[in-house]
Write a structure and sequence with these properties.
Blueprint (H helix, E strand, L loop, with lengths): L1 H6 L3 E7 L3 E8 L7 E7 L5 H13 L7 E6 L5 E5 L8 H16 L6 E5 L7 E7 H14 L2 E7 H9 L7 E7 L2 E8 L2 E9 L6 H15 L6 E5 L16 E4 L10 H6 L6
Parallel strand pairs: 1-4, 4-8, 9-12, 12-13
Antiparallel strand pairs: 1-2, 2-3, 5-7, 6-7, 9-10, 10-11
């Protein structure tokens, strides 16, 4: 019953937002309670206004007041890039300036209309993300009107990397599959070298994956990785098999119900086990 859901200690919400759909999932800190898909709704467009309207419809069907909520944004809605800190950087302003310049060179414009977040580091390359301000405003307004606690807004790729950070193997690249797209973080040893995203063609097999990784390595100026570690609904054929010597590929086990829609799987990205 909804009343027991509202009163249960340790209940949390996760909201997955993709350009075409949104999902609301309830999770719990208690290991015996499984995640529950509360609802999903299609979005009529990928713009902030359309997504805000869809979010209002989704949340309007549930009493979420007082509950903490984490929002996971599909990588289609954000911009991700790698930043090399300038030599001798000592201030946050130095890192912010380097990130803004790198953003401009990659995306052909300034950060007007975007909110920049990053894992700031003056000693090594770091990952930066830009989130649309208009969408952040919609999320803030929804939290205010529905009276839930907005505790985190995170891009899917960042959430996945944080979730698997401790088990990333030395020399491995890291990938995320969602919505027919493969995003890959290329590493030079332990240093982040680039973040690359590409659509997965229909029927993409292990040969396609090996060719794709080889091309991305050339573009970034790195050797092919020893291993690729991937989370998300990747084709089973991508996993390592006998006779495959170019690089190993590990597919992290996906504990999400395979019948759940992509937007619900998105919502659970980064959830603590």
């Amino acid at each position: 019953m909804l009343s027991s859901f509202k009163s249960g200690f340790g209940q949390q919400l996760r909201i997955g937002i993709a350009p075409d759909a949104l999902a609301l999932v309830r999770t719990s800190i208690w290991p015996h309670e499984r995640a529950r898909l509360l609802g999903q709704v299609a979005a009529t467009g990928g713009d902030a206004v359309s997504l805000g309207a869809a979010l209002g419809m989704l949340l309007g069907e549930h009493d979420v007041a007082g509950l903490p909520a984490t929002v996971v944004l599909a990588d289609d809605l954000v911009r991700l890039w790698q930043v090399t800190p300038p030599e001798g950087a000592t201030r946050l302003a130095d890192l912010e300036g380097a990130a803004a310049l790198r953003y401009q060179s990659l995306f052909g414009g300034g950060l007007a209309g975007w909110a920049m977040r990053a894992d700031w580091d003056a000693a090594r390359p770091f990952l930066a993300a830009a989130l649309p301000l208009a969408l952040l405003d919609q999320l803030t307004a929804a939290a205010s009107s529905q009276r839930f606690k907005l505790v985190e807004i995170v891009p899917q790729f960042v959430a996945a990397m944080n979730q698997h950070r401790r088990i990333r193997r030395a020399g491995a690249w890291f990938g995320v599959v969602h919505g027919g797209v493969l995003s890959v973080a290329a590493f030079d040893g332990d240093l982040l070298a680039a973040v690359r995203t590409a659509p997965i063609p229909p029927g993409a097999d292990r040969d396609w994956l090996e060719g794709h990784v080889a091309r991305e390595a050339l573009r970034v100026g790195l050797s092919r990785p020893e291993r690729l570690q991937i989370c998300g609904p990747a084709p089973n054929g991508w996993g390592s098999s006998a006779g495959r010597l170019k690089f190993a590929c590990t597919l992290f086990e996906d504990e999400t119900d395979p019948l759940w829609p992509d937007c619900a799987r998105l919502a659970l990205t980064g959830r603590a086990p």
